[in-house]
Structures are given as structure tokens and as C-alpha cells.
Amino acid sequence: MTKRSTIGGQRPTTSIINSHSSGGTSTVSMNAASMASARAIGSGLMNSGVLSTLLNVTSGAGRVPLLAIGTVDATSRTIRLRVTVDGTVVFDATSSAIAANGNGIFAAGAFASAGVFAPSEPIVFQKSFKVEAAYVSANPTETDKLQLLYQMHRS
To answer: How far apart are CA 93 and CA 112, in angstroms?
Structure first.
């Protein structure tokens, strides 16, 4: 019998169901300044309707207590966030139209109120962790119009 080490005794996440998984948008402005411990990554150049990889961990284990994506301007767009853990898509949600700076989708964690982080169960991975995002708007291409916010603990 082969034993497999798991981070903190937790098995990898297999599914994430929350208020955003069915297309909800956040009502609180989320930004790195209000979350001093969050890492922020700009989306780079993206094409409308096409998933782009924003974060890709290809080896090792870890957990992610915060994972969110939001807009950085008030241009109307929908955003999609897809999270893959150890080769399995565990979260794939598309927002309704967002026309406010800083609103978006949480896959892990949330804001309890402006600037206050409310933790949730972390996303746990053993081998790999991938985050992809897409937007749909009238603009065929955009650069850094989405911002990924996350916390990650590696082992």
C-alpha cells in the first residue's frame, strides 16, 4: 500500500461551490491596497473571450486561502475565472456584467466588509495549481484590465 503525503492532512480540493460559482459578482471593491497580505498580478494582454493563464504551479503542494479576480476600471465586461487543481477543474464561473472598478469573483475567501478579509476553506493542491481568466467586452483586446489577488502557502 502506497501512502501519499497531503498538506496539513487535507486532500486536494475537488469542487468549489460558493456565491460566485453560479455567476455572482462581488459588491465590495477588492484591491491589493485593502488586502496587505494579498499578492496582485495584472492580467497582461488578453483577447476577448479567450482564457489566459495567470498563475501556473506545475509541481509541489500548497494551499490557497484567498483567490479572487476583479476589474481595474469601470468598462462594462463579464469576467470568467477557472481554477484547476491537480488536473481537475474545480471552479469555472462567469460573472454577470460588471461596470465598476474592483468588482469580480472570489474562488476562495471573501470580503466581510470593505477591507476586511473573511477566510474560507483553502483550495488545497498536491501536484499542480492553475488559474485562468477571460473577459468579454466591446474591446477585442485589453491589457491589465483584470487583477488576480491571491495568497498561497507552499510546502
So the answer is: 21
11: nearest Cα among 92, 107, 85, 66: 85
At 80, list the grid cell: 470568467
> pTM, whole model, 2 decimals?
0.87
**71, 101 Cβ separation under 8 angstroms:** yes
Give the model confidence (pLDDT) of 8-28 as tens digits.
567 999 988 887 877 766 656
Unique residue bearing C-alpha cell 466591446: 138
Q: Please report, for the chain, how many H helices and E strands are present, in that order.
A: 0, 13
How many whole angstroms separate alpha carbon 112 and alpha carbon 150? Answer: 16
With a CB cutoff of 8 Å and minimum separation 6, the contacts of 1 are none
